[in-house]
Amino acid sequence: EVQLVESGGGSVQAGGSLRLSCTASGFTFDAANMGWYRQAPGKECELVSIVGTDGSTTTANSVKGRFTVSRDNATSTVYLQMNSLKPEDTAVYHCAPDFLFSCGDYARRHWGQGTQVTVSS
Predict the structure, then answer these.
(1) CB of 64 closer than 8 Å to CB of 49
(2) What's the distance, CA 105 to chain centroid?
(3) What pLDDT, on the 0 to 100 scale, is given for residue 11?
(4) Hey, is 99 helix, strand or coil?
(5) Residue 30 backbone phi and psi in degrees, to 5
(6) For residues 65 and 62, what is the distance between their CA atoms, to the nearest angstrom?
(7) Per-residue DSSP letters for 54-70?
(8) Which of 13, 23, 45, 94 has its Cβ near the most Cβ atoms within 10 Å?
(9) CB-based contacts of 59: which residues, under 8 Å, 6+ apart?
(10) Cα atoms found within 13 Å of the Cα of residue 11, Cβ hemisphere only
(11) Among residues 91, 83, 93, 76, which one has the least CA distance to residue 32?
């Protein structure tokens, strides 16, 4: 069974930083591309960043230059370093392996609880 446990969220002021972590189990972590999604109330689910099995990264334009994704295969953990946070970054953040890359109901049912990030102005 896939398990995804996110942590590291919190409340910060605009301009602050947070580092999110996601520990995964139940699948071959080093064979999966890993991504971070976010969901804010009243907004569309958004794919924020992806780290490939080879360590390559892709980042959404909305967070480019501010967020950095990385992974540690030894601990089956994926990270999201978030700097220069803005109020519009406020959301619940979820990690997902590539076979759950979707904002559809099936994928979301198999995501973890997520971690809340709140940025105040």
Answers:
(1) no
(2) 18
(3) 98
(4) helix
(5) -75, -5
(6) 9
(7) TS-EEE-TTTTTTEEEE
(8) 94
(9) 48, 49, 50, 67, 68, 69
(10) 2
(11) 76
Taking the C-alpha atoms of residue 7 and residue 77, their distance in angstroms, rounded to an integer, is 11
Grouped pLDDT means (10 residues each) for the chain, 121 residues: 97 98 98 97 95 97 97 98 98 98 94 97 94
Instruction: Give pLDDT, residue 49.
Output: 98
Nearest to 25 by CA among 6, 7, 4: 4
Parallel, antiparallel, or unpaired for β 10-13 and 115-120?
A: parallel
Phi, psi of 31 (to 5 degrees): -100, 5
What pLDDT score was predicted for residue 30?
96
Pair of tokens at residue 39: 């969901």
Joined together, the tokens standing for residue 53 give 């099995």
